[in-house]
Design a protein that fits this description.
There is one protein chain. The protein is built from five helices and five strands. Helix 3 crosses helix 4. The relative contact order is 0.22. The termini are far apart. A hairpin with a 2-residue loop joins strand 2 and strand 3. The chain has one domain: 2-Layer Sandwich (Nucleotidyltransferase, domain 5), CATH 3.30.420. The protein is of the alpha/beta class and 146 residues long.
Amino acid sequence: MSRRLAVDVGSARIGLAISEGTLALPLETLVADAQATTRIQEIASSRDVDVVYVGLPLNLKGEFTPSTTKAIEFAQLLENVGLVVRLIDERLTTKSAQNMLRKAGKKVKESREYIDAQAAALILDFALSSERGNLAGMTLNDIADR
């Protein structure tokens, strides 16, 4: 069965989530370093991933920010190693993940790695619910046209 992988790109960490059917499950958190793309490629290969959804952090007005540029550059690296990549608007996913942890009685400071993976799960959940016979999100070419 093919799967989807979601990536929440941060400056220090990269959260990952994987699909199991129609469920989006937090997978792991990687250090945002030069080995991250290799690790994601390995995960995608070993888990039969069809597409990698990368969170696109736009501001509340839908405009690009420095984080948006970083996510696009990371998506390009993933595409360069042969992965099918789609970009998904991820406004407020990290904030939502933090709120979910607070409601569960967890401290945000002690749960940063989990927050990144949970944010990726929120990105993936949105992508999976948006798929209606076609992949959700935008291609890198769509972004270049903006």
